[in-house]
Write a structure and sequence with these properties.
This protein is mainly beta and 512 residues long. It has three helices and 46 strands. The N terminus and C terminus are likely disordered.
């Protein structure tokens, strides 16, 4: 089993090395990032996580159905609201206060001398009990805005000012480029200026779409995400036009629910129906992260970015951390079609995987962005692939039925000797190539862009899984239960001497 684990690790390192060469602040597009799951049984609170925020020290806060969750990287702590109600939103102020809102309550939390959070109600300052539910909090210096579907509460200088709009409900409030926008239903998008809501000039373009995200696009314009209308651009003057991107029609169907900007030029959208989508500033599709690649749930209730520029997602069932900014990415064979991976090789525009099911390939172009990984089996390769090696620009596949040359998506027979475990161009013996297989050792001749089979040595018939040079014309050959030193003639036409060194299991833990 150690052999198999090493091959699995090698496969993932291939991805890591390739991605490690990418530019800083780039998200990878081949394979998927690691998703670290925090289940309900891990954080010991409610299923739903409605809001997420990060403090100056990197602690994560989640607005949970059972209260406010705090995560320090090792432990979760739950702080129920005094009224035991649902917490819908959490926002950390630079001064350390954690503002929260939810059922019939809004206020802030501060750490006491013991490092525990204590709650301070702001809504208690209202002249009457709050019969409302807070869904959004916007921090604007010393002014804190709490928004429900019926009222905007502005807390400043220990006073609360309220804004209502003649019974016309609000949807959600957003802050982008230091401007605050609120959608009213049905009259559309407005901007909050001097505690008054001013209609945005192009709001008719968005009528009936329901705005769920507004993000800064550049210093003067905004990217607007709607529930069923896709994405729009709004200029500084308020002109609104559809934003051309690779997946706009798909986004219309999966219902955008929230969004964040990441690494200055990526846009991350959580959806109700199909997880998380990431686009770059040109509208190119970068990543899709959903349940099939590790997300616990496809309904994304909240998003935030941590101090390492990785994504945290509050879900309808759980919390997940997405290591989007890591060098190591993954490909998960959820269908099981690949089987057990024994070898991997990148060669002439393809990534090849040798498995116990056969030889698989997918396109691999480091100069082309946003290509999916979609492995297909090479016709005729069914069976056990033991080894893939590039020798003088020839890709060689050691298979249980023989040895093959791989060219693109086709294979041709080089040798009928079964079980090509290992093949090596053993320096300083070029152009001679030795292969260990089920029944001994084969000799090949290597030239640039060509490999030809010469012979199978008749005087050595033990299976060989490992070959290594000892000295000129001497090679170690190791198999299941023996180790031999083979001495060859100068032209490698014959084995002149076989010197055994072990007659017991060389690899007792190997399972083939």
């Amino acid at each position: 089993m150690k052999f198999l684990f090493k091959i699995f690790f090698l496969f993932f390192i291939i991805f890591g090395i390739f991605f490690g060469e990418s530019k800083a602040n780039d998200i990878q597009y081949l394979a998927s990032p690691w998703v670290q799951q925090f289940t309900k049984s891990t954080y010991k609170a409610g299923n739903q996580n409605w809001g997420l925020s990060v403090d100056q020290n990197g602690l994560i806060y989640a607005a949970n159905s059972d209260g406010l969750l705090e995560y320090d990287g090792a432990y979760w702590n739950l702080y129920p609201h005094p009224n035991k109600g649902i917490v819908r939103v959490a926002q950390v102020h630079p001064d350390g206060k954690i503002y929260t809102g939810g059922q019939s309550e809004f206020g802030y939390w501060l750490k006491n001398n013991n490092g525990r959070l204590t709650y301070h109600s702001i809504s208690k300052r209202l002249l009457k009990d709050l019969n409302d539910e807070i869904w959004k909090i916007i921090i604007q210096d010393h002014r804190i805005i709490f928004q429900s579907f019926s009222t905007i509460y502005i807390y400043e200088n220990d006073k609360i000012k309220t804004i209502t709009e003649d019974g016309e409900p609000f949807l959600f409030a957003f802050q982008a480029n230091k401007r605050i926008f609120v959608e009213k239903i049905p009259s559309g998008l407005h901007e909050l200026k001097n505690n008054k809501l001013i209609p945005v000039s192009g709001k008719e373009q968005l009528k009936g779409h329901n705005i769920l995200s507004i993000l800064p696009f550049d210093a003067a314009s905004f990217l607007i995400g709607t529930a069923k209308g896709g994405l729009f651009l709004m200029s500084k003057s308020g002109e609104i036009t559809p934003w051309k991107n690779d997946i706009n029609e798909e986004l219309k169907n999966v219902q955008i629910n929230n969004g964040i900007k990441l690494l200055n030029h990526y846009y991350v959208f959580g959806t109700i129906l199909n997880g998380i989508y990431i686009l770059d500033e040109n509208g190119s599709f970068v990543q899709h992260i959903n349940k099939s690649v590790g997300l616990q749930n496809n309904t994304v209730l909240s998003l935030t970015v941590d101090k390492q520029s990785n994504i945290w997602s509050g879900l309808d069932n759980g919390i997940d951390r997405i290591a989007i900014n890591a060098d190591l990415y993954y490909y998960s064979d959820n269908s099981g079609k690949l089987g057990t991976i024994y070898s991997a090789k990148i060669y002439q525009g393809y990534l090849y995987l040798g498995t116990n099911q056969g030889l698989f390939y997918t396109s691999w172009n480091p100069n082309k962005k946003y290509q999916p990984i979609d492995f297909k089996m090479i016709h005729g390769s069914q069976g056990q692939v033991w080894n893939l090696e590039v020798i003088n620009n020839v890709l060689v596949c050691g298979h249980n039925t023989g040895t093959f040359q791989i060219q693109g998506t086709a294979m041709s027979l080089l040798s009928p000797k079964t079980g090509g475990w290992v093949i090596k161009l053993l320096s300083p013996h070029a152009p001679y190539v030795l292969q260990g297989n089920y029944t001994g050792v084969s000799l090949f001749n290597s030239l640039p862009n060509a490999l030809t089979y010469q012979t199978q040595y008749p005087n050595f018939r033990s299976g060989v899984q490992l070959l290594e040079t000892q000295s000129k014309n001497s090679v170690w050959a190791a198999g299941y239960n023996e180790l031999n030193l083979l001495k060859f003639s100068d032209d490698f036409s014959v084995i002149k001497q076989i010197k055994p060194y072990a007659q017991k299991m060389v690899y007792p833990n190997r399972v083939i």
